[in-house]
Amino acid sequence: MSQHNYKKHATIGFVGLGTMGGRMIRNLRGYADLLVYDVDPARARQAAQDASATAVSSLADMAKADIVVLMLPSSPIVDAVVRGSDQAPGLLKILTPGSMIIDMSSSTPTHTIENARLAKLGGMSYIDAPVSGGPTGAESGKLAIMVGGSVADFEHARPLLERMGTSVIRAGEVGSGHAVKALNNLLAATILAATSEVFAVGEKFGLDPQVMHKIVNASSGSSFMTQHTWPKAILPKSWDFGFAMQLMNKDVGIAMALIESTGVQTILSKASAEMWAQGLAAARPGADMTELTKQIQRDAGL
Ligand code: NAD
């Protein structure tokens, strides 16, 4: 049983209405009274229009929310919104006991665990529910959502999360969702880097990239990258898969800190993290993750 005396989902707050949040909120239309907040008021106004929500002009206006969802760029920003800053109080001061905060951003697991500890002191609950599926999944309500929190908190949040995702899986205790999200993206980043190198070698040897793709994709070297990223953004050289290189780097950085904290020795993950950091440093601002492949091709003289 939950330690919290939950109220019905009467009012839901949503903070962060960018690429992901601005789409996710549309799937909550009609589900509850919605309050939306973003530091960019134009984004909050747009979200209010799209989801029949009320745009509020400060976090303090979220006081009556039973659940507040966060979809913010980074852990430091999540921490400031939750704990407050010199300029403004955070949600832990604003919300009432019995309410819940759901961090759907890709955040650092240790920060999540600390935020959950602080929330508990105030009689609130805090869970992590990061997502995979990008803007398309956000728009269609078909995100994969990985949740960290107690079974009771997970069950409390599940109906809301199921409005935004089709695969809603409890990963474990609080912080687990953020851990598995970062590790999954480290894996994806490493596979993209490895596939890019191997394809550059094949092309240098004289293989036709289209033919090589057809063969690898039907063989044991196949992956999400060869199935989706290659045909959409790499073979046509549009370099616009829709996931920013900077966001991939953020997730790789979170995963590397996690690896360090566990003491597990890694060779491949370290090399991959280095490639991604160098790739980001050399990329134009806002570059897509497929920029790494472009750089590898260029360095190979292709
Ligand atoms: P984004 O930068 O497009 O949106 C973030 C929004 O937060 C912006 O509208 C910004 O104005 C707002 N914001 C920033 N600081 C704020 C504050 N203090 N208070 C209120 N609002 C604030 O980012 P995004 O692409 O929507 O990503 C959000 C999160 O989801 C990130 O953690 C990202 O890693 C994760 N994610 C993104 C994708 C993707 O494909 N874009 C996929 C999976 C996960």
Textual characterization of the structure:
This protein is of the alpha/beta class. The protein has 2 domains: about 10-175, 3-Layer(aba) Sandwich (Rossmann fold); about 180-300, N-(1-d-carboxylethyl)-l-norvaline Dehydrogenase, domain 2 (Orthogonal Bundle). The chain has helices at about 20-25, 40-50, 75-85, 90-95, 110-120, 135-140, 150-160, 175-205, 210-215, 225-235, 245-260, 270-280, 290-300, and strands spanning about 10-15, 35, 55, 65-70, 100-105, 125-130, 130, 145-150, 165-170. The chain has a 6-stranded parallel beta sheet with strand order 3-2-1-4-5-6. Strand 1 (about 10-15), helix 1 and strand 2 form a beta-alpha-beta unit. Helix 8 crosses helix 12 (about 270-280) and helix 8 (about 175-205) runs parallel beside helix 13 (about 290-300). The longest helix has 30 residues, at about 175-205. It is elongated, with a radius of gyration of 21 Å. Residues about 1-5 have low confidence and may be disordered. The protein binds nicotinamide-adenine-dinucleotide. Nicotinamide-adenine-dinucleotide binds near residues 19, 131 and 135.
